[in-house]
Prior knowledge:
Order of helices and strands: HHHHHHHHHHHHHH
InterPro entries: Cullin_repeat-like_dom_sf (IPR016159)
Number of helices: 14
Strand content: under 5%
Helix content: over 70%
Organism: Iphiclides podalirius (scarce swallowtail)
Shape: elongated
Distance between the termini: 140 Å
Number of strands: 0
Protein name: Exocyst complex component 7
Structural class: mainly alpha
Amino acid sequence: MKLKKEMTNIQELKAAANRSSSLANDVCNVLGACEQRLQQLETAVLPLYGDTARLQHIHQNMERTVKSLDHVINYYMVSRELADLIQAGPHTSTTESLNVYLEALDKLAEAQNYFNKHNPQSVELENINQLYNAGVLKLESAFEELLSRNTRPLSPTTLMDMIALEEDSSVDSVSVSGSGSTSGAALETMRAAAAWLSAAGRPPAGPLLAIRAPAAKSSLVAFKDYLRSRSMAASPLMKSKNLLHRSDSTKKTSKLQKVLEKRANKLMLKASQTLEQSTGLAIGPRRSLNEAYGEESSEALDEQEAELAGTLAAAVCRLARHEQRAALGLVPLPRLPALLAATLRDCFAALAADVEVTPYLIARVMF
Length: 367
């Protein structure tokens, strides 16, 4: 019974082994077929991958080409798009409106650089050059007009107040009425226009000199006339008449005169020292007014002439500071000393002629 049972089990195991072998053969056949099909699919797909990569590269090139074309087309269209804005000229009422005009000029300058580099024979370059030059000229004219509107000679009373306040406080921190200072909005607009012109290689030194120099000279001439009239009013012949017709303003002026009389001998020295420190103009070794006159002649100035000369020198010093503040931000700093020297040249010459200094001193003061 046990033998029969074991033989039966052996037969069953043989049958199971046969079935397992059959299944293994079937699986091997299926896997072989799958591998063959995968090889066929890979053979068909690999060229497609290469074509897809080439298509992607072509697409990227097309996108870059379209962007480049848009960029280049803008250069060809910029003159047509900005012609009306440039021909209308800049609006200097606010800095924002001026910046719109400056941005248009920057676009024209960028187009100029592109055509000069890639297509200097293009007709469009000539149109852009004409429009750009016209825009720069209009900007310079607008700057000159704005500068003229905001440039006024200082009144004699304003200069006298500046001189009187110089001893105890700075004019920068003291409000002086009628000083003719430029408004904040106008100053910002002028500085924006001047900064663009300086960056473009056309700093507005010429307009500044042509407009500010006559204003400074007019301020000094009016101040000299004011001093002369006050000196005549203080003479012995006019003293009795002035006593009968003295007003509050005359009393205030007499107080300033007393203060100035005490400082008359040192005003020339202090004026020259302050002028050099505030403007950067090299005036050279400073000497007192009495020493300068001592070299020219043995006769000393009387008290009234010394006061007039010293007050005039102090006025030139205050004018120099005023012109320095007005020119800050309008020209590059390296050009500022030369501009101030040229602007105040007539004032220095008038001062030299008034106090009758030697030609050597004139040259040192002016240069």
